[in-house]
Design a protein that fits this description.
Blueprint lengths: L3 H18 L3 H22 L5 H29 L11 H20 L12 H18 L3 H19 L8 H29 L13
Helix pairs in contact: 1-2, 1-4, 1-5, 2-3, 2-6, 3-7, 4-5, 5-6, 6-7
Amino acid sequence: MIPLSEALLLLVLLANFAVLAASRLTFTIRATAFQGVLLGLLPLTIYPPWLVENLLLAGGTLLVKGLLLPNVLLWAMREAAVRREVEPSLGPLSSVVAGVVALGLSLALTNHLPALDPHLPRLLVATSLTTVLSGFIVLMTRRKAMTQVVGYLMLENGVYVFGMLLAGRVPLLVELGVLLDLLVGVFIMGLVVFHMNRELESLDSTRLSELRE
């Protein structure tokens, strides 16, 4: 039987591929929100769930990644009246293939790293690296600023997964501080997307060169 932590990591990987294969912005935002919920549950399956620090970290992650950030992005999407990614550099199939390559590279690299703590899930590092690379793929191949924000979130989610390696040692305030920085950053990006659409009547990031003081 697959341990719960491994099952959550597999679902995180599936969420990556769901974003890579999607063209509707609403779906990508909801897939990222689902990934945030999974990440909120992850520390409770890796470390003793009865510790107050782990409960606070899980609760903060669920609140920020699973609820607040997706709602900010959905609000910005409604205000900008945009629904679909238009003419990405890579199509859905090519993006999924790139994600599979990223997963293969991550698994290969994991095999060359020093042995992890046997209590940690075997997929932890591979999932972290794949999520970071998937975020980079979205950032580099999508033209809509809103979708690029989703790529940024995926990248940060990968960093968060890697942080689970040290969650037992890193102070809780540091973890919560990272979540707060992420919340503020995405809120600001949501406002930028809104004003960009109002001024340029487009969310195509290539048109940012048209902005003037």
